[in-house]
Design a protein that fits this description.
With 152 residues, the protein is mostly helical. It has 6 helices and no strands. The N and C termini lie far apart (94 Å).
């Protein structure tokens, strides 16, 4: 029974991601290491793009992990480290982008476009329901049309 329980536990834990931090990257100071890990989890691997640098085995991710640890050892705050990495790689490096006018527009644009489209559709539908019959042709217009049809 215990073997079956251990097997089930092992199967459930198998798909968990393995952290890619190498032992030679780990800082001796546990407080700094914890800060580095917290920062690394929020930075995107520019090679893998859907993984944090903490999870990625890419060489660039390793370089970024080392860079984060170096900046922390130099006395930078967490925000200074993030600002430094963003200044070099852009906002895309953040897995959770900062709230700004640009991100607000990005998230609200689909809703705004749907609302505008809905308003346009309602106005068009109302306009079609109230559409008037075209004005009758004048005698000149009718004569011109008949003349054109006879030429065929």
């Amino acid at each position: 029974m215990i073997r079956k329980l251990l097997l089930v536990l092992l199967i459930l834990l198998a798909p968990l991601p393995a952290l890619a931090v190498n032992p030679d990257e780990i800082l001796a100071d546990p407080v700094l290491e914890e800060r580095a890990r917290n920062l690394s989890v929020n930075l995107r691997c520019m090679v893998c793009q859907n993984q944090s640098i903490d999870d990625s085995n890419a060489e660039l991710a390793r370089d970024l992990r080392v860079l984060v640890r170096e900046r922390l050892q130099q006395g930078d705050t967490d925000e200074e480290v993030i600002d430094y990495v963003v200044s070099r790689y852009g906002e895309f490096v953040l897995l959770k982008p900062r709230f700004s006018l640009r991100t607000m527009l990005l998230w609200t644009a689909p809703v705004l476009l749907l609302a505008i489209g809905g308003i346009v559709l309602v106005l068009m539908a109302r306009g079609r329901l109230r559409a008037r019959a075209p004005a009758p042709l004048s005698a000149e217009e009718e004569a011109r049309i008949n003349e054109l049809l006879e030429r065929r």
